[in-house]
Design brief:
Elements lengths: L2 H21 L20 E4 L6 H17 L3 E3 L11 H9 L4 E4 L8 H9 L3 E5 L10 E4 L3 H15 L4 E7 L5 H17 L3 E8 L4 H14 L3 E6 L2 H12 L8 E4 L3 H9 L5 E4 L2 H16 L10 E3 L5 E3 L5 E3 L4 E4 L9
Helix pairs in contact: 2-10, 3-4, 5-6, 7-8
This protein binds alpha-L-rhamnopyranose (RAM).
């Protein structure tokens, strides 16, 4: 921890403590409603793509932990559906409440741009995490891992499972999601460059909704009788697809991989529906995002390339080109290690 950071951190803690004493109520977290916490200029508001996704609940836990360490407040609010502008009203409320910083996983690269601009004009710092907006709308983007590395690992996993040949499909999240669309573009490039015998026959969107993703899986299997594998680069999609496959004639015949949480995928690894999948730690992503948000809100960093800040247990991070901060490398989960993880 730099001394500069320590000073900023304790100032934030004092402001937060005063805020709590004045309002004589517990700080915000996890309610899913906007609350009335107004005017705590060190507070951090987390707006995931949608509520009810264990992935974002894990990020919320990490953010909350970091906020406690820092001595500020953190709360999660957000829409029930991951549609392009469903986050706008939550951003506007946080702006009116003069939140110190927003941490947002964007459902669309531009639809929330005006609302974020207003927030920043009012002095609220903006961190995108997990799924970015266009760079002009935020101060920094906390990225889970290098996008090309994620895409390559998804393609490598399916190639390994289907003998590097045959038809595959992608079951994605929302059609406009910045993160999934970037990974899909890079997966297509990777397939074209290194896997000439794999044919991507369809890409469908489950909107990070369990039932929609389940139904889209059924649709893919019906429309493509020769399908050999599915890649689902969304924790909601891959779990729903695994549930469908595990109880169908396709179990063990159609391969499935993607980005999933070990807790949601464990039973499908154990029952043989899924051989391997990947992810980073979403709790760490929330934790790092909260530290980045606080470093911006306290004036410790501006979000410029080369700025450094301390992120608690994770150590020091440096802001890279275009304001991007990268958490680390994804992990591949299979039968041999799935029980070592709990998120
Ligand atoms: C879902 C969301 C999130 C994505 C993960 C892999 O939870 O779409 O944005 O990063 O999957």
């Amino acid at each position: 921890m730099t001394s500069k950071f320590r000073r900023a951190g304790s100032a934030v803690a004092i402001v937060a403590a005063l805020g709590l004493a004045l309002s004589a109520c517990g700080g915000g977290s996890d309610s899913g409603s906007d609350g009335e916490g107004g005017g705590d200029t060190s507070s951090i508001t987390f707006i995931p793509k949608n509520l009810g996704n264990p992935y974002f609940d894990a990020s919320d836990t990490g953010g909350q932990k970091a906020a406690e360490e820092i001595g500020t407040t953190w709360k999660q609010v957000g829409p029930t559906e991951s549609t392009p502008d469903s986050q706008v009203s939550f951003i506007n409320t946080a702006t009116q409440q003069r939140a110190g910083a927003l941490v947002v996983s964007a459902n669309d690269p531009t639809a929330i741009g005006d609302a974020l601009e207003e927030a920043r004009n009012a002095g609220t710092k903006v961190v995108t995490m997990d799924s970015d907006t266009e760079p002009q709308f935020r101060d920094v983007f906390v990225s889970q891992a290098d996008a090309a590395g994620i895409a390559k690992s998804q393609v490598d996993l399916i190639a390994e499972q289907i003998g590097d040949a045959g038809e595959i499909a992608i079951l994605s999240a929302a059609a406009n999601a910045t993160n999934q669309n970037e990974w899909i573009k890079l997966m297509e490039e990777e397939l074209a460059a290194n896997h000439p015998d794999i044919k991507l026959v369809d890409t469908v969107y489950g909107n990070d909704d369990d039932q929609t993703s389940f139904d889209k899986t059924a649709g893919l299997l019906q429309s493509h009788p020769n399908l050999k594998g599915i890649i689902s680069p969304t924790t909601v999609g891959v779990a729903a697809a695994a549930r469908y496959l595990s109880d169908s004639e396709y179990k063990g015949k159609v391969a499935l991989t993607g980005l999933g949480t070990p807790n949601q995928m464990r039973e499908y690894i154990k029952d043989g529906t899924v051989k391997s999948f990947a992810l980073w730690d979403p709790e760490q992503l929330g934790y790092l995002s909260a530290y980045a948000a606080d470093a911006l809100a306290s004036g410790d960093i501006e979000g410029k390339e080369g700025d450094t800040f301390e992120a608690g247990d994770l150590g020091e991070y440096t802001v890279g080109a275009d304001g991007v901060i990268v958490l680390g490398e994804p992990t591949v989960f299979d039968e041999s290690n799935i029980d070592d993880f709990d998120f």
